[in-house]
């Protein structure tokens, strides 16, 4: 039930822009050698991709 509820609340557009934004910060961190930015945005990117995958999976049902 919670899975379907959260899948309906978060829009596909938001998920996509979130992933793009985090990926841009990750690239910025890599280019400037900022390890804390790389680590935390890497984690956020993995979680964002999981959120995007869940959204797509719930939308198909």
Walkthrough of the structure:
- The chain is an all-alpha fold and 61 residues long.
- It has one domain (10-60).
- The chain has helices spanning 2-9, 12-32, 35-60.
- Helix 2 (12-32) packs antiparallel against helix 3 (35-60).
- It is elongated and about 40 Å long.
What features would you highlight for this structure?
mainly alpha, single chain, 61 residues
Order of helices and strands: HHH
* Major sheet attributes: none
Provide the structure class: mainly alpha
**How many helix segments?**
3
Mean pLDDT: 86
Number of domains: 1
> Unreliable runs, pLDDT <50, ≥5 residues?
none
Count of β-strands? 0
> Gyration radius, to the nearest Å?
13 Å
Report helical residue fraction: over 70%
How much beta, percentage-wise?
under 5%
Can you tell me the overall shape? Answer: elongated
Q: Could you tell me how far the N terminus lies from the C terminus, measured between alpha carbons in angstroms? A: 13 Å
């Amino acid at each position: 039930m919670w899975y379907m509820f959260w899948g309906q609340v978060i829009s596909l557009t938001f998920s996509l822009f979130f992933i793009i934004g985090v990926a841009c910060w990750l690239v910025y961190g890599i280019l400037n050698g900022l390890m804390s930015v790389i680590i935390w945005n890497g984690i956020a990117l993995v979680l964002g991709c999981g959120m995007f995958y869940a959204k797509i999976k719930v939308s198909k049902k």
